[in-house]
């Protein structure tokens, strides 16, 4: 979330307190890790007890010595995760009480205010740890940590409050739960996106092998997360390749024919299972009932629906709980997609990336359809216990009027700052300013939280902020309140404001006064320094403590502001919560940043036993800040101290391969000149695989922390580390064609060159890697150092982003930012808002990507492009992109080494894209997701264009 001192100041995160808390938790986690082996003492079993502790003691009967050995062997695999003590899990679940029981050996718990799921693992956990510790994606369930106690493993996962998908999609479910078609398609898109990440972007690619309705979990916003990775396995090679197995495991009905008949394992296994899952979601029946009485291949069930008169039988096939509440053309398209996934020949099934594209195109229409079709009984309004709940907050504040802030979640009908401001009668420029200067017309992702400043004042007994609304067709009070205004008011409050004689009903074109819920601080709150109360709509699964922590607010003050206590803190979804904030949010930010800095310094000293001093020079050097970033290290540590340092550091890095220095000497022939690449970088060979070994001179904690959490084809992979004589050595995967900077500049001494198609492929690879960092890692990350030297090329000229020493997490949505006074990076690549105000957001990478793409198109480095230019870099493109016939002058601007061997229309489109990336107003730049979409549309044409030509030295 964003915060502000006033509407003219920049907003920054409300949640820095949570970040500081995260640092504290990490410190405690490391201490727990070292104490854990001493805690693994066998406990006496009570045969009569019914809790999980008793269930877990009989599972493993191996000797204690063997259990300890297994634990130590697994340490290298799990230590990058949080390691919990069994006592912590007992506290989180009230000793695994029945109140916390979900099912089987699965319990819900609360750790530091966050809801988690704790599961006792009865089987071999090595595969699941191996997979979950290598992946990081929003649509895959996150393994937060583990506990090993008395030979039994316990896994701690993030909590998905709406449970498994199977509880929501079948007609015969006992609770009568159901999902709209829009939500079903959103879930399908989430599952497809997660599988596409596994198939295409993990290194190596992975197959889930167990996709089914019980293994897809729904969070409080009904977004899907794939779970259960026990059967998952890596697949070497390209998507089309496969392996064979004699060990057939899985769930009947979801298993592809080629797997059942011949043991063929490929990504098409997941595609088939996804088709079955989606078929269940559309039909409202599980696969067993779909198969009932059918002796043919499952896909043939769809034949009657997809025949020429298919639309006539569509209603009979679709889930009856939907009634006719769905667009038939989209439903029909979805069944055609299912049919393609269920083809018996795996070669005729679509890839997951194709499925994602199809679902993405239909998703917006489906969500809009679903948002306008709800009703609420005859009266349209629910009953409330008291007037305050129904009508607003009492006017008991120190002021009758004050500034207030509401949180509105973007939705398809209101997905821009302009439309949201218009709906809530707010000033669009003020809304833009406090939301990271997002362009008022930029489309926002669904559920992006937008902070809206309004004036709150007394109207009789209750506070309210006023707006108006014209009723549309098929709307009632409930629809207007819930769908349009997202429960920021109540339908009773709207109803009582109506001045016409017919108060009970609303009709199209009625103009309503909408009283938005708000409040001003009380005298007690005012004296405590609180100046604003933020109105936040509670979502399913929220808790007051977690909401308060997220905003950096005091839990006690938040409870008091809402008439709650620790004993009575129950809150209901779709009601509002007041979150108190201090007068000057910036003060809290500085304090929080200072705390994080101190905590980080203490932690680093504990881990490495040395202080790293960085020179904070605001003057940007021409080439790079790398020299400023080299730390001054103390090298007088004793061998014993160094050994201790290494052991203390193991909890952070042990999920990586830990090499001995002898391993590295053997790999590089004792770091001989024949293996030298440049600087302190050497090429080596470990077990037949080419690697890059780099001696690290500065603080390595940030880079380890980032690289140990990410896994993506377009990000360079850290294979392992070595710690010797106080020095760290990193072992990376080898990119055979070196840095991009060696291939794109006209003055390259080796005359290396890339074709047009190869340049577009590299640009797409870099954009895809950045989009993963910005949108799909948890938390989102900003690279902060994108430049041509930090993009490496494989032997197939695919781009991989390297150098994560400056990368940092950015909590919250894409539009949010944080502030820093420590400006580091390379001149020319640094965005204006970062240089001038220290603003750090994903738009920093978007700007740098624009510079990089400009270099790739022109064949000139950024220093040359700046030469003689005293204006903003984007103005270099002004004359070209603003001309009516800019394409005709393209040749003078493009890299001369390309000649005319490029599609002029696409080249011009790329320059327009660069122009957008380089806009001085960060709110007007595209997101990386939008950039990926633009590049993907032109990539095929560019590759076909370039296929008839070879690139300089690239063909060798």
From TrEMBL:
Q: Classify the protein's membrane topology as the record does.
A: Single-pass membrane protein
Q: Which UniProt keywords apply?
A: ATP-binding, Cell membrane, Disulfide bond, Membrane, Nucleotide-binding, Signal, Transmembrane, Transmembrane helix
Give the transmembrane region(s). 12-36, 582-608
Query: Which SUPFAM superfamilies has this protein been placed in?
Result: Protein kinase-like (PK-like)
* Name of a matching Pfam family: PK_Tyr_Ser-Thr
InterPro entries referenced in this protein's UniProt entry, alphabetically: Kinase-like_dom_sf, LysM, LysM2_CERK1_LYK3_4_5, LysM3_LYK4_5, LysM_dom_sf, NFP_LYK_LysM1, Plant_RLK_LysM, Prot_kinase_dom
GO molecular function annotation: ATP binding; protein kinase activity
Q: Where is the Protein kinase domain?
A: 69-363, 644-939
* Subcellular localization: Cell membrane
Output this protein's name: Uncharacterized protein
């Amino acid at each position: 979330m964003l915060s502000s001192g006033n509407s003219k100041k920049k907003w920054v995160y409300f949640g820095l307190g949570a970040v500081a808390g995260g640092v504290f938790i990490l410190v405690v986690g490391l201490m727990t890790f070292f104490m854990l082996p001493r805690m693994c003492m066998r406990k006496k079993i009570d045969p009569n007890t019914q809790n999980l502790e008793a269930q877990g003691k009989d599972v493993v009967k191996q000797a204690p010595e063997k259990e300890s050995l297994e634990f130590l062997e697994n340490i290298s695999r799990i230590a990058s995760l949080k390691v919990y003590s069994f006592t912590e899990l007992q506290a989180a679940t009230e000793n695994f009480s029945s109140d916390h029981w979900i099912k089987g050996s699965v319990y819900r718990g609360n750790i530091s205010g966050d809801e988690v799921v704790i599961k006792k693992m009865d089987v071999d956990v090595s595969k699941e740890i191996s997979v979950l510790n290598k992946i990081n994606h929003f649509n895959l369930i996150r393994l937060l940590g583990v506990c090993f106690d008395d030979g039994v493993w316990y896994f701690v996962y993030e909590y998905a409050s709406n449970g498994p998908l199977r509880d929501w999609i079948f007609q015969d479910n006992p609770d009568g739960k159901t999902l709209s078609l829009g939500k079903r398609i959103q879930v399908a898109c989430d599952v497809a996106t997660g599988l596409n990440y596994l198939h295409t972007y993990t290194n190596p690619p992975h197959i889930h092998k167990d996709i089914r309705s019980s293994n897809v979990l729904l969070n409080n916003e009904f977004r899907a997360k794939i779970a259960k990775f026990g059967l998952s396995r890596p697949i070497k090679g390209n998507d089309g390749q496969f392996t064979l197995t004699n060990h057939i495991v899985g769930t009947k009905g979801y298993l592809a024919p080629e797997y059942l008949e011949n043991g063929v394992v490929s990504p098409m296994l997941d595609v088939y299972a996804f088709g079955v899952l989606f078929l269940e979601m559309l039909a409202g029946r599980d696969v067993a009932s779909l198969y009932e009485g059918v002796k043919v291949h499952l896909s043939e069930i769809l034949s009657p629906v997809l025949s020429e008169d298919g639309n006539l039988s569509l209603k009979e096939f679709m889930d009856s709980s939907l009634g006719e509440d769905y667009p038939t053309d989209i439903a029909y398209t979805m069944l055609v997609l299912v049919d393609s996934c269920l083809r018996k020949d795996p070669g005729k099934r679509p890839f997951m990336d194709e499925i994602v594209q199809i679902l993405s195109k239909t998703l917006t229409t489906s969500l809009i359809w679903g948002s306008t079709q709800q009703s609420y009984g005859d009266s349209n309004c629910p009953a409330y216990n008291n007037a305050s709940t129904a009508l607003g907050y009492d006017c008991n504040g120190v002021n009758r009027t004050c500034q207030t802030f509401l949180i509105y979640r973007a939705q398809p009908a209101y997905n821009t700052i302009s439309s949201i401001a218009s709906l809530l009668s707010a000033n669009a420029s003020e809304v833009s300013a406090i939301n990271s200067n997002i362009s008022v017309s930029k489309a926002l992702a669904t559920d992006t939280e937008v902070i809206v400043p309004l004036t709150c004042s007394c109207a009789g007994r209750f506070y309210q902020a006023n707006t108006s609304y014209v009723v549309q067709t098929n709307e009632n009070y409930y629809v207007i309140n819930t769908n349009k205004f997202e429960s920021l008011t109540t339908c009773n409050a709207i109803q009582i404001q109506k001045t016409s004689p017919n108060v009970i009903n609303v009709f199209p074109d009625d103009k309503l006064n909408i009283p938005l819920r708000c409040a001003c601080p009380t005298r007690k709150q005012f004296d405590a320094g609180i100046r604003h109360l933020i109105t936040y709509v509670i979502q399913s699964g929220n808790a007051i403590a977690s909401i308060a922590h997220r905003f950096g607010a005091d839990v006690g003050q938040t409870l008091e502001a809402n008439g709650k206590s620790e004993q009575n803190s129950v809150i209901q979804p779709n009601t509002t919560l007041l979150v108190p904030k201090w007068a000057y949010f910036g003060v809290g930010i500085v304090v929080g940043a200072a705390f994080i800095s101190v905590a980080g310094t203490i932690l680093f000293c504990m881990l490495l036993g040395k202080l790293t001093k960085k020179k904070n020079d605001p003057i940007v050097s021409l080439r790079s800040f790398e020299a400023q970033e080299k730390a001054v290290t103390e090298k007088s540590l004793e061998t014993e101290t160094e050994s201790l340092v290494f052991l203390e550091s193991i909890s952070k890095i042990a999920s990586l391969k830990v090499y001995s220095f002898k391993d590295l000497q053997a790999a590089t022939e004792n770091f001989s000149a024949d293996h030298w690449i440049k600087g302190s970088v050497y090429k080596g060979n470990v077990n037949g695989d080419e690697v890059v070994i780099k001696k690290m001179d500065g603080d390595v904690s940030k880079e380890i922390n980032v690289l140990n959490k990410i896994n993506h084809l377009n990000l360079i992979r850290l294979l392992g580390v070595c710690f010797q004589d106080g020095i760290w050595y990193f072992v990376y995967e080898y990119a055979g064609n070196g840095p991009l900077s060696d291939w794109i500049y006209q003055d390259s001494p080796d005359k290396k060159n890339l074709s047009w198609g190869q340049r577009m492929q590299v640009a797409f690879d870099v954009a895809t890697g950045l989009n993963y960092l910005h949108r799909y890692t948890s938390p989102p990350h900003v690279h902060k150092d994108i430049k041509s030297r930090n993009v490496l090329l494989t032997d197939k000229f695919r781009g991989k982003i390297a150098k994560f020493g400056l990368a940092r997490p950015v909590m919250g949505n894409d539009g949010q930012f944080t502030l820093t006074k420590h400006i580091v990076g390379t001149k020319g690549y640094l965005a204006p808002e970062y240089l001038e105000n220290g603003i750090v957001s994903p738009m920093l990478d978007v700007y740098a990507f624009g510079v990089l793409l400009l270099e790739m198109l022109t064949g000139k480095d950024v220093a040359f492009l700046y030469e003689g230019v005293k204006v903003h870099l984007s103005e270099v493109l002004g004359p070209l992109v603003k001309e009516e016939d800019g394409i005709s002058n393209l040749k003078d601007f493009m890299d001369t080494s390309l000649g005319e061997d490029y599609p002029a229309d696409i080249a011009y489109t790329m320059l327009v894209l660069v122009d957008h990336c380089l806009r001085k107003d960060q709110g007007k730049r595209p997101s990386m997701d939008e950039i990926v979409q633009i590049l993907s549309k032109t990539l095929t044409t560019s590759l076909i264009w370039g296929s008839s030509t070879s690139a300089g030295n690239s063909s060798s």
